[in-house]
Amino acid sequence: MVLDLHGIKHQDVCRKLDEIVWECMQRNKTQITIITGKSDRMKEIVKECLKDYKLMCFELFDGGSLVVNLF
Predict the structure, then answer these.
(1) What local confidence, expressed as pLDDT, does residue 54 receive?
(2) Which of 6, 29, 51, 57 has its CA 20 to 30 A from that of 71?
(3) What is the structure's pLDDT at 21?
(4) Tell me: the pLDDT tens digits for 16-39?
(5) Torsions phi, psi of 4, nearest 5?
(6) How far lies 61's CA from each of 64, 65, 66, 67, in Å?
(7) How far is Cα 18 from Cα 36, in angstroms, rounded to an integer?
(8) Residue 5: C-alpha distances to residues 21, 24, 28, 48, 71 (Å)
(9) Residue 68 DSSP one-character state
(10) CA separation for the pair 65, 32 (Å, rounded)
(11) CB of 4 closer than 8 Å to CB of 35
């Protein structure tokens, strides 16, 4: 699944992540690609929100996306 955060305000990121993590769990998906753009602040917000789920992410070579494994 893919979550594109372009146009999403920083204060709304955790809620969007909550929604997609829940949806992935319901659909038995194992990976989420999160498009953050080049914003280092957006990437840090995503990483902080993922800590609530004890999930880690890694950055793709494009520099504007993070991948989260849900298993």
Answers:
(1) 93
(2) 6
(3) 94
(4) 999 999 999 999 999 999 999 999
(5) -100, 115
(6) 8, 8, 9, 11
(7) 16
(8) 14, 17, 22, 15, 23
(9) E
(10) 10
(11) yes
pLDDT at 40 > cutoff 90: yes
Which SS3 state, helix, strand or coil, does residue 20 take? helix
35 CB-near residues (< 8 Å, 6+ apart): 2, 3, 4, 5, 6, 64, 65
Indicate the pTM of the whole model: 0.91
| Alpha carbons 23 and 17: distance in angstroms, whole number | 10
Looking at the chain, how many residues does it have? Answer: 71
